[in-house]
Amino acid sequence: MNRAEPTASSFSRRDALKTAGAVGAVASFALPRAAHAETPSNDVIRIGLIGAGGRGTGALQQTLSVPGSNVKLTAIADAFDDRIKGALKAVEKMEGKVECPEERQFKGLDGYQKVLDHCDLVILATPPGFRPFHFEAAIKAGKHVFMEKPVCVDSFGARLCLEAAKLADEKKLKVVVGLQRRYDQRYRETIAKIREGVAGDIIGGQVYWNGSGIWYRDRKPDMSEMQFQVNNWYHFNWLCGDHICEQHVHNIDVANWVLDAIPEAAYGVGGKQLRKLKQPSEIYDHHSVNFTYPNGVRIASQCKQFPGGDGRVNEEFQGTKGYVRIGHITDHAGKTLWKFEGKSDNPYQVEHDELHDAIRNDKPLNNAVYGTTASFAAVLGRLATYSGKEWKYKEALDLDYRTMPETLAWDATPPVLPDKDGDYPPPMPATFKIQSVTKPPVS
Asked: Do you find a cis peptide bond into 426, omega within 30 degrees of 0?
C-alpha cells in the first residue's frame, strides 16, 4: 500500500496512547514480581551504556557527573570494539565511578541484551533505528532509561515505544529522552509565559535546523555492506530516519510543546541536491514541511545539511498578542512583554540530574510519550517530503511500516543497496511506496 487515504479527524496525545495498544500483536510484556525498581538514596546506581559513540559517551560522562549521586559504570556494549575502548578512555579518570571489566564489555549487534543483566539505569545511544527494540527490552527488564532522540524512525517503532512507555509507568520506571530543550530553563520559562497568555493564542510558527553538513565515515576494505551502513548510520533511513528525524526533531518537539498538541497532518517537499558521490548517502539534504495542528494552526518547518546560505537553528511563534522567540516575547509593535533574565544550566547535564533525583526519590518522570510523538511527527514530515503528498498523523501511525530488517547480522543484506555508481538512490515522490498494510482501527 502506498499511503493511507486522509480522513478529517483530530489526533491527540490520548489517541496516541490508545493507538499504542495496536502493537500488542508484535510485542507482549510480562510484569516481574517486583512492581518497580527501587533505589534508596544512598545505594549505588549501576550504569549500563548501549551505544558508545560520541553522544553515548557524552551522556555517560554526564550521568557519572550527577552531583552527590553514587554511580558506577558496570557494563557497556557497542557494535564496534573501538567505540567501547573510546568511551572507557573518556571516563577512565572518573575515580571510583568505573567498574567495567572486560567480561562486561560486549561487542556486536546483540550486546545490548547482556548489558541489561548488569545495570539499574541504561543509556540507549545506538543509531535510532535500534532504539524501539532496545527501549522495549530495557523496560521489560525493569531498567530506568535515558535514551537519545529520536526514539523511532517508523510507525512500527513508534507504536512499540508508546506501549513500552505505558509499561514503564506501570512499573514506576523513570525515562528521560534526550530532547534537551525540555531541560533548558530559558525554554521552560518561555513556555510558562505562553501558558500564562502573554503572547495570546498561538496561531502560527516557524522551526528551523538549517546547517552546513554532517560527518561521514569512509568505507574500509574489509567491511561488509551491513557493517558499512551501521558504521555510517547517519546516511541510511532505516538507521537514522533522515536528518529531519535525527536532528530537526528537536525543533519539531518545541512546536509540539508550545502548542501542547501533535500535528494532524504534514505536506512538504525535499530532496538530495548537494550530497556528493564521494560520500554516498541515501538521505535527503533538505526538507521543507508545513505541519497542520488542531484549530488550523500551521507550523512551517525547514531543515538542510549543505554548505552555503544562512545557518539558522531556532523556533519562532506568532500569537494574537505578540511574537515569541525563545527567551523573548514582544507585542506586535516590537515592545518587550517579557524577557528571560535567569540562568540556564547545561541542559545536557540537567537531564541526568533530574533523572537521578526521580530514581532516588521515586518521583514520576517519563518522557517517552512526548519523545515518541515528536519523533513520529518528524517521520510524518519525512513521509510527506518523500511522497510529495499530504500525510495524516493517525493514518501514518496505524500503518504497519517497519524499516528495520528482521535479520541483523554482519553478513545479512541491509534494506538498501548501492547502485552501479556506488551511490544510494534517494526516495523519489514519483516512485516512493511503503510496502505495508494498514492495521485495523483501534477501538
From this structure: no
Mean pLDDT computed over 146-166: 98
Order of strands across the sheet with 45-50? 105-107, 71-78, 45-50, 121-124, 144-147, 175-177
List, as one string, the DSSP characters of 333-365. Answer: TS-EEEE--S----HHHHHHHHHHHHHHHT---
Q: What is the per-residue pLDDT across 342-398, written as a single tens digit (0 to 9) for each? A: 999 999 999 999 999 999 999 999 999 999 999 999 999 999 999 999 999 999 999
Q: Taking the domain 182-347, which CATH number applies? A: 3.30.360.10
Q: Could you state, in order of their start, the residue ranges of all structural domains in the chain?
A: 13-180+349-377, 182-347
The answer to whether 382 and 245 are in contact (CB under 8 A) is yes
- Spell out the residues 6+ positions from residue 48 whose beta carbon is closer than 8 angstroms to its own: 73, 74, 75, 76, 77, 115, 116, 118, 119, 121, 122, 123, 143
Give alpha helix (H) positions in 129-224. 131-140, 155-170, 185-196
Residues 395, 6: contact at Cβ < 8 Å?
A: yes
pLDDT digits (tens, 9 = 90+) for 24-72: 333 322 223 233 445 556 799 999 999 999 999 999 999 999 999 999 9
**Residue 237 CA neighbour count, 13 Å, CB half:** 21
Q: CA end-to-end span of the chain, whole Å?
A: 22
Spelled out in words, what is the top-level CATH class assigned to the domain 13-180+349-377?
Answer: alpha beta
